[in-house]
């Protein structure tokens, strides 16, 4: 059985990582267009670097929760039959034990050089505009996908969606494309579709089934169901 899981900020919320659009979310304190567009970076690079430096530093204060850990248990059994796609730029899936994670919106722990276009693992701040370790030019930016940029690994994700048996979306508002459209593609290609979210998302009606509650409750239960199905 092939399974594609899409996760969003809601899966990390109970670990203490703020979501974007909920009350007290990241966008409460910042205008999206001030921090999450290439244009914002061109106009106010120091402000944008600080926004991401603060979030990178905050990773040290958070830990994976039972939802991340349950998805790692599923990977232990399904192996390559599971594709875990996350919109999140934190590393909580990896710290929860997942090994094959597609970060379609990039990663906080990576820097992207605007000069040579190469990606480098990066754990420190970028606010002091350090040189790129590969080409030496001081043009490192956060390796994240802003509005108007193309998410990572879209071909691989689309292929998986077209051949999956099950598509599950966890903790995402369904407000941002192309991720918000994954359910329609998977469903049109014959997949069972399930939403696990605190409240109905903007795209809830596209799913054949929706369960509402906390990810740390819903995801372990769903993984147990899947493991029962795969061992029958
Ligand atoms: C819980 C919970 C708990 C809480 N348990 N649940 C007009 C129409 C259609 C599309 C467009 C349009 N105009 C422009 C576009 C395209 C644009 C877009 O979608 N804009 C929208 C605003 C309409 N998209 C793009 O530009 C993308 N690129 C693109 O389309 O390229 C073209 C292309 C695509 C494909 C192939 C070829 C070409 C790029 C989008 C980049 C998004 N970047 C960000 C920032 C990343 C860096 C960073 O982190 O700062 O990604 S924006 C932000 O939103 C971030 C997130 O990954 C993304 C989604 O947010 P998410 O995860 O859903 O979080 P929330 O807060 O919205 O929701 C959390 C949910 O969890 C809520 O529902 C809660 O209820 C729930 N929850 N606690 C379970 N405990």
Head-to-tail CA distance between termini: 12 Å
Uncertain stretches: none
Q: Can you list the strand order of the major beta sheet?
A: 3-2-1-7-8-9
Largest sheet data: 6 strands, parallel
The radius of gyration computed from the alpha-carbon positions, rounded to a whole number of angstroms, is 18 Å
Task: Quickly give the structural class.
Answer: alpha/beta
Number of strands: 9
Structure ligands: ligand BJW
How are the secondary structure elements laid out?
Elements: E1 3-7, H1 9-13, H2 26-29, H3 32-35, H4 38-43, H5 45-58, H6 66-78, E2 82-86, H7 92-95, E3 101-103, E4 106-113, E5 119-121, E6 140-144, H8 154-163, E7 166-170, H9 182-188, E8 192-197, E9 209-212, H10 215-231
Bound molecules: ligand BJW.
Task: Give the key terms.
232 residues; alpha/beta; three-stranded antiparallel beta sheet; 10 helices; 19% strand; globular; binds ligand BJW
Structure, described:
Helices cover 36% and strands 19% of the residues. The chain is α/β, with parallel strands linked by helices and 232 residues long. The strands form two sheets. The chain has a six-stranded parallel β-sheet with strand order 3-2-1-7-8-9, with helices on both faces. Strands 5-4-6 form a three-stranded antiparallel β-sheet. The structure holds ligand BJW.
């Amino acid at each position: 059985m092939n399974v594609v899981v899409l996760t969003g900020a809601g899966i990390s919320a109970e670990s203490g990582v703020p979501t974007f659009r909920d009350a007290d979310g990241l966008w409460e304190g910042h205008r999206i267009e001030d921090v999450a567009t290439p244009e914002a970076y061109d106009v106010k690079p120091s402000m944008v670097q600080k926004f991401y430096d603060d979030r990178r530093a905050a990773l040290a204060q958070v830990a994976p929760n039972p939802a991340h850990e349950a998805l790692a248990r599923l990977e232990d059994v399904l192996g390559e039959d599971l594709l875990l796609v996350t919109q999140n730029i934190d590393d909580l899936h990896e710290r929860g034990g997942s090994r094959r994670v597609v970060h379609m919106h990039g990663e906080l722990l990576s820097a992207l050089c605007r000069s040579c276009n190469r990606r480098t693992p990066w754990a420190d701040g970028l606010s002091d505009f350090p040189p790129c370790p590969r080409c030496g030019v001081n043009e490192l930016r956060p390796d994240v996908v802003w509005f108007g940029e193309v998410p990572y690994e879209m071909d691989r994700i689309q292929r998986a969606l077209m051949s999956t048996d099950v598509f599950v979306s966890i903790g995402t508002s369904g407000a941002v494309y192309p991720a918000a459209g994954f359910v329609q593609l998977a469903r049109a290609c014959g997949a069972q579709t399930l939403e696990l979210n605190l409240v109905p998302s903007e795209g809830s009606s596209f799913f054949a089934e929706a369960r509402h509650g906390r990810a740390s409750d819903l995801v372990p239960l769903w993984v147990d169901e899947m493991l029962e199905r795969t061992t029958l």
